[in-house]
Design goal:
By secondary structure, the protein is an alpha/beta fold. It has two domains: about 70 residues, no CATH class; about 120 residues, TIM Barrel, CATH 3.20.20.120. It is built from eight helices and five strands; from the N terminus they run H-H-H-H-E-H-E-H-E-H-E-H-E. Strand 3, helix 7 and strand 4 form a beta-alpha-beta unit. The longest helix is centred in the first third of the chain and has 21 residues. The radius of gyration is 20 Å and the shape is globular.
Amino acid sequence: LVGIGEAPAPGAAAIVNDVLAPRLVGRDAFDIAGAEEVCLPFWSGVQSTNDRTRIMAFGAIEMALWDLRGKAWKQPLYQLLGGAVRKDIPFTDYFSLRGDGASVKGEKTPEEVADYCVELYERHGTTFFEGKFSTHDPKISMKMVELIRRKLGGGAMIRIDSNQAYSLATARQLARPLEELGVRNWEDPVATIKEMRELRRHTSIPFSTHN
């Protein structure tokens, strides 16, 4: 049996072959947690690091090990992970303050981002939106979300990703206004799991992290 995985980092293949593979050969292929333990430093899931290449390289291995498990047990992975939650996945549109690209005009102000979201709604009919909320001045990102909510109404699901941009103190100040705007998920609001646990005391917005 062969498990298949992939990673976005250009140097991932070399890391897998030269660094991680020697730690894994001979181990139980079904022990995914054990594979992570020998491949990644203990702090990699807690503290943000500048170089995530090794983490992404292991992501390819983990993906392959799950693929291998499904093939070995002749089951789709959603069954092994507890069963299907839904049959269809809602389409989600993406928003962010951004500069102009080679062939695309960027949205450089909160007003332009909100208008872009309206355009996406009219074009795709989606009511799910996810975007970056990580400006140096959080008031700019807050205004962006306020305008999106005002223009799209209460039926739009808005989720944000702060890329660990804010201190715990700043995130605390942002939590209540974001909750009042009906934000449905806040990805990586702060830098560590410890800070996220403390922030949980101040808001009911669901958190997520991929760190």
